[in-house]
Amino acid sequence: MLNIAVSMGDNYTVINNKQLSRFEIAFENSEFAELQYRWLKGDMVLMHTFVPKDIRIKGIGSFLVKYVLDYVRANNLKIRPYCPFVAKYIKEHTEYEDLVNK
After folding, report:
1. Which option is the CATH number for 4-99: 3.40.47.10, 3.40.50.620, 3.40.630.30, 3.90.470.20?
2. Which of 76, 77, 90, 91 is the most exposed place for a label (fewest CB within 10 A)?
3. Coil, helix or strand for 82?
């Protein structure tokens, strides 16, 4: 499968790495911020968000979650937010609640 890269603001590039089932942002020091996903009955299950400790204060996690949720909306998908960080983000940004398969 092909990887799809999209440049977003703040000079971050998000890649949907389908082979590893994760959206990722690569950094120069060979570290990745990532949001791992799986598929369950046609829904994208958002499993885990990870941002390396030394860059957490820069809002990378929220940037990545927003990107993934916008991707889900653009592709007419539904999600199951197993990741507590994603669930909290959706609770604080209610415009994404309609993406959750209840």
Report:
1. 3.40.630.30
2. 76
3. coil
Q: What is the pTM of this model?
A: 0.87
Digit-coded pLDDT (tens) for 70-98: 999 999 999 999 999 999 999 999 999 99
Task: Kindly tell me if the per-residue pLDDT of 21 is higher than 90.
Answer: yes
43: tokens are: 């829904």
Compute the distance between CA of residue 31 and CA of residue 66 in angstroms, rounded to an integer.
20
State how far the Cα of 45 lies from the Cα of 21, in Å rounded to an integer.
10
Mean pLDDT of 6-28: 82
What letter represents residue 89's amino acid? Y
